[in-house]
Automatic annotation (TrEMBL):
Gene3D superfamilies listed in its UniProt record: 3.40.50.880, Homeodomain-like (1.10.10.60)
Name this polypeptide is given: Helix-turn-helix domain-containing protein
Domain HTH araC/xylS-type: 230-328
Species annotation: Streptomyces cyaneofuscatus
Keywords: DNA-binding, Transcription, Transcription regulation
Pfam families named among the record's database cross-references: DJ-1_PfpI (PF01965), HTH_18 (PF12833)
Length: 332
């Protein structure tokens, strides 16, 4: 397992809109801050602007909303990176059809042809699509922009219902927090579940949301997390190998099953049984990565039962068999 180098494309160095800073800050936070106690070396991060390296971006016009960025690296520095991330593209390129810089498209294509793992967050998918990297692939973006993406690039199989798509060497995500989910997913792929979980804990975010989870749910998202559920969820995580039911969780939380069901779904976006299944899959992933226990024993410890039942759920949620997943994380 290795971290490698990550090149993040800054497509608009002058007068960057404040709302685009969120997607840009995600890879900077995940990959740019060394975590020597989790993995050494950590990722080598470089910000690569579409302008000339070191060029003074100038002073924003009076009344302009946004910031100016000064990057040390240019598009030529995408070459040789293990992972290339495009967090977003200018709004005018999405809404008004303004062409993306041809030098950016050429640099992205060259990086891909050289073997780089290509990643987009939110509207960054438009850059990968323009470079032809998404042709014939399933991909996503923020649901507000997926119709435009599908219309403009008919060769792309656009899925507007998921948080992110992992297509091996090309990954795309929806906007905002889905970009964080994808970046943590990359850490999980590169460095294992333990490192990703500890990093998420430090960032005070969920350790893992499956990419296939819906971008949005019919019920409004609560303004704050239901912190009253934390004790019962921690209790359940410690007993995943036991046959837990909604009634068991409700009794531990001192509430009716109906109330527990409603509050947990409102807080997490999934039903209690789906939450338990997600936790058990996560436990199985961790055991597959960190032990040489037989698959049958991992099924028992994760609460998924038999080896066949573990394989069924693993294939459905992760997309590979437990054995194939384990081969990606060889023990030292």
């Amino acid at each position: 397992m290795s971290a490698g180098s990550v090149a993040v494309v800054v497509t608009e160095e002058m007068h960057v809109p404040s709302w685009d800073l969120y997607e840009l800050s995600i890879p900077c936070t995940v990959f740019g801050k060394p975590q020597p106690d989790l993995a050494e070396p950590w990722y080598d991060l470089r910000l690569c602007g579409t302008g000339e390296p070191g060029q003074d971006p100038g002073t924003p016009a009076s009344g302009a909303i946004g910031l100016s960025l000064h990057t040390r690296h240019g598009l030529a520095d995408l070459a040789g990176a293990d992972t290339v991330i495009v967090p977003s593209v200018p709004d005018a390129c999405v809404d008004e059809g303004r062409p993306l810089p041809p030098e950016l498209i050429t640099a992205l294509r060259h990086a891909y042809d050289s073997g780089a793992r290509m990643v987009s967050l939110c509207t960054g998918a438009f850059a990968l699509a323009e470079a032809g990297i998404l042709d014939g692939r399933r991909a996503t973006a923020h649901w507000l922009h997926t119709a435009q993406l599908a219309s403009r690039y008919p060769k792309v199989r656009v899925d507007d219902s998921v948080l992110y798509v992992d297509d091996g060497d090309v990954l795309t995500s929806a906007g905002l927090t889905a970009g964080l989910d994808l970046c943590l997913h990359l850490v999980r792929r590169d460095l294992g579940a333990h490192v990703a979980n500890q990093l998420a804990r430090r960032m005070v975010v969920p350790a893992h949301r499956p990419g296939g989870q819906a971008q949005f749910i019919d019920q409004p998202i609560p303004a704050t997390d239901d912190r009253g559920l934390a004790p019962v969820l921690d209790w359940a995580r410690e007993r995943l190998d036991e046959p837990l039911t909604v009634e068991d969780l409700a009794q531990q939380a001192a509430m009716s099953p109906r109330t527990l069901y409603r509050r947990l779904q409102a807080a997490t976006g999934v039903t209690p049984l789906q939450w338990l299944l997600n936790q058990r899959i996560r436990r199985a992933q961790s055991l597959l990565e960190s032990t040489d226990l037989p698959v049958s024993r991992i099924g028992e410890l994760s609460g998924l039962g038999t080896a066949n039942n573990l394989r069924h759920h693993f294939l459905k949620q992760i997309g590979v068999s437990p054995s194939d997943y384990r081969r990606a994380f060889p023990l030292a």
